[in-house]
Description:
There is one protein chain. This protein is of the alpha+beta class. It folds into 2 domains: 13-104, CATH 2.40.50; 117-203, no CATH class. Helix content is 17%, strand content 44%. The chain has 5 helices and 10 strands. The chain has helices at residues 3-8, 63-69, 117-123, 130-137, 197-203; strands spanning 13-31, 34-50, 53-62, 76-83, 94-104, 126-127, 143-151, 160-168, 183-186, 192-195. Strands 1, 2, 3, 4, 5, 6, 7 and 8 form an 8-stranded mixed β-sheet that branches. The radius of gyration is 18 Å and the shape is globular. 27% of the residues are buried. The model is unreliable at 3-8 (pLDDT under 50).
Amino acid sequence: xxxxxxxxxxxxxxxxxxxxxxxxxxxxxxxxxxxxxxxxxxxxxxxxxxxxxxxxxxxxxxxxxxxxxxxxxxxxxxxxxxxxxxxxxxxxxxxxxxxxxxxxxxxxxxxxxxxxxxxxxxxxxxxxxxxxxxxxxxxxxxxxxxxxxxxxxxxxxxxxxxxxxxxxxxxxxxxxxxxxxxxxxxxxxxxxxxxxxxxxxxxxxxxxxxx
Length: 211
């Protein structure tokens, strides 16, 4: 255990494996009809080994780490990370990754790395059906599973609820896309706001069907 791990009490777990997908790591904050995003980094979805166990795992990394290594599907990587403190706030099971190493690059012509977070912000997203995400979009660079923190009463910010929502940043013409049901957000005194289709249309109005 390193000196930092002894000081913080966080014992990092060693892991290694093959990247299945790299998706954006974005957190969504909702307060009735208002929303804001936190662009945290990326999520490595992997098939590998951790603590002598072979399985699929997810590791959250920062923006700088992705810019340095340009991780993409098919890469063989290793590193250390800590189990997330609050699973409601992270789309991965491990975070605070360190000692990242690219062991082998994916073959030429394989999937490209995801774009910069600024690109996702500029493109805007549309809601994506959760089952469609799991079946067809888990390994797409334009898919995103966001942890959502909802402030139920703005006069009592401690009253919060949590859930996950799935979104698509990809081309509007994608044949796999399915919006699914609209999302509803609870408010104070039993009120409820429904995020209708016009919200997505407005957020992506600057893009053409194939953009």
